[in-house]
Amino acid sequence: MKFKRSAASAALATSVAAAIVFGTVGPAQANTNADSLGEGVPNINYGSGVWCVQYMLNRMDNAGLAEDSSFGPATAAAVRVFQATHHYSYHLTVDGVVGPKTGTEMLDQWKYVFHKSGGWGGYCGNWLPTTH
Description:
The protein is built from four helices and no strands. By secondary structure, the protein is mainly α. The chain has a single domain, classed as Muramoyl-pentapeptide Carboxypeptidase, domain 1, CATH 1.10.101. α2 crosses α3 and α2 crosses α4. The radius of gyration is 15 Å and the shape is globular. Pfam families: PG_binding_1.
């Protein structure tokens, strides 16, 4: 029974990861109502949105972050690096907080790097704050 349960859990985790990478979780929805993510942002320094930030930065910028859904100093530093180097469209403020402009830039870069013909952000498009 234990083997079946762990095999089922592994299959589910693999499916979710594949859906995120390949953007196959249906049409991605931007979330203009999502709260900003970061240290000092009340109640929004953990959870799915933070995991998405860590996951995306690890794949786009080789950030080396623990994907633990906790927005700590290492995640804030990686966000600042992203903001300083990926400010093409939105003139990002380098503050270590993922607000609507940074979230939009992250999703734009994600689409460009990983699935040019696919959706905009896949699963993570639901969790990051965006401008549109």
